[in-house]
Specification:
The chain is mainly beta. It is globular and about 60 Å long. It has three helices and 18 strands.
Length: 239
């Protein structure tokens, strides 16, 4: 992989920035991570972290080619700091399931698990002041039913389980994949009683964009978010 050197001009969000190189301005998307979206808890904190660590500073980018939006995907170093890893370690981004060319993806997954166990950032007990009085988990065992994915949308599913003693109101909550390209909003009046489970299939109405497989068979993570965008539960799976 080639290394591109330059100076950061502007941070666009928690995982994207623009820097000036000898060949001109380049927009870089941090490879292997996904910071909170604009409507999610700690979005502003992730942006501020990247600004503090990158804006106006020289960086080196290991170029892994363009994404679908034409941005350069890369591992980024600011001095001795590997930015992708440091962001995940802080709990201000999740790791994403690495592709074959993502040679450092395993390190990012390990860093995410450590941040989760430590309760850092988005994995904290009360991120953005959001507290929860019931215990939910996500079961992803139904992510890959038999048959072509686009023909078994009503069989492909994840299950939300309420292990606590309190009834949960999931109205306005969000279920999403690790890329955030698939997002399901629970309708008003969605209730989950103690000791019960709620299945969400990929064929259910409420998915954006909808009418397509949601869960990546090569590995993914299901995230359950409160209406404030705080993480209530997560489950990662690998093939």
């Amino acid at each position: 992989m080639s290394l591109i050197e330059g100076q950061v001009l502007d941070v666009e969000d928690g995982d994207t920035f623009v820097f000036e190189t000898a060949a001109g301005e380049v927009t870089v998307r941090l490879l292997g991570v996904n910071a909170p979206e604009r409507d999610e808890c700690l979005y502003a904190e992730a942006v501020a972290w990247l600004q503090a660590n990158l804006e106006g500073k020289p960086v080196e980018v290991e170029d892994h080619g363009p994404d679908q939006f034409g941005r350069t995907l890369g591992y980024v170093w600011a001095g001795e700091s590997w930015v992708n890893l440091a962001l995940v370690e802080s709990g201000l981004a999740i790791a994403t399931t690495p592709g074959d060319s993502e040679t450092r993806g395993g390190d990012l997954l390990s860093a995410e698990e450590a941040a989760y166990q430590e309760g850092s950032g988005i994995w904290g007990p009360a991120p953005c002041g959001v507290t929860r009085d019931f215990e939910l988990t996500v079961d992803t065992s139904g992510h890959n039913p038999s048959g072509p994915d686009d023909e078994v949308l009503d069989l492909e599913h994840v299950t939300i389980v309420n292990h606590g003693a309190t009834t949960g109101d999931l109205s306005g909550w969000l279920l999403r994949d690790e890329s955030s390209s698939h997002r399901f909003r629970f309708p008003e009046g969605t209730i989950i009683e103690p000791g019960t489970a709620l299945m969400v299939t990929s064929g259910d109405a409420g998915w954006e964009p909808g009418d397509s497989p949601v869960w990546n068979n090569n590995g993914d993570m299901a995230l359950l978010l409160t209406p404030d965008g705080a993480v209530a539960a997560r489950e990662r799976y690998r093939p």
